[in-house]
Fold this sequence. Notes:
By secondary structure, this protein is of the alpha/beta class. The protein is 40% helix and 8% strand.
Amino acid sequence: MKKIAAYLCLMFVLAACSAQDQTTTTTTSGDMTVEEYEPKSTLVVEEHPLSRAKFPFVDVHSHWFQAPTMTAGAVDTLIMEMDGMNMGALVNLSGGSGENLAGAVSNMEAKYPNRIITFANVDFDSVGAEGWTEQAVAQLRADVAAGARGLKVYKNLGMDVKDVDGNRVAVNDPRLDPIWALCGELGIPVLIHSADPANFWNPKDKYNEKWLELKLRPNRYRAPGEYPSFEAIMDEQYNIMDKHPETTFISAHMSWTGNDLGKLGALLDKHPNMYSEVAAVIYELGRQPIAGRAFLTKYKDRILFGKDSYNVSEFDTYFRVFETADEYFPYYRKYHAQWSMYGMNLPDDVLRAVYYENALRIIPGMDKSVFGL
């Protein structure tokens, strides 16, 4: 009986300890969500953080919605920040058209010519109205005469834009062909953002790399039946490249194929008038430094530097991925990528091509002296 009592006492103590451990675990994990979980790495390796690029660079993907009304002081501050990062020129993709475009050009280039490059935009909301195509072409021609050096096309084309009859306007709608043809005639590039990351169309489950982003930004989810498929929209974009071989197209955000560099390389091979840029997707290259270095070395003449949102503190991640051999350092926006970055340690000829040479070649009227040439 004594042995049995001792045994039962021991089991009671163990059960109590187990319950206490379980309670502690529940309390510790219960007050934190997976969205909040952000462990600090204990890895100790050499670090080479950078706040300035090795060579002057062109940010071909930026947005300044208030460019026509920016004060002189705000423009001075912008140029000072650009100088600090070694940014030779910034492309404002939100130039608009008409008076807004002319105001943006004059305001941004009056004091600092060739530092702020302005692209025009086309309003596609009235496609199908009588004379719309002719008017859009005439307006774009006038915008280029007023100083626009390219055309930016937003992602709503192909997804949300409806014509006057309520039908979706496809990226390769034939009513838009004269616009792409005019860009080729005038020698200006088209920076086009079509679709979104493919995972925005995939189920919001534990296998989706973009689960956290979709949890925090639910409006980015592309529910079945509400939008054409990712593949359909991107195929429409590639179709206009085939139809207009004399026009230069810059497919934004590594054409959403930075996770499959073999596919992106095949697209560049198939479409000789296609370029791409790394805005908001440096996390793709930063997780595959060996493959990324090989890809950029092979296609150094087809990829441009871009950032998208302008935040001085975030550019250093791009410089570090491109220029260093650093290991396992954080990306600046957790919901874009939960993984860490690695540097590609690109050779100088690749850096120069991506940072400024490709932009100088395809964007008209840029001043080479800004880049020491």
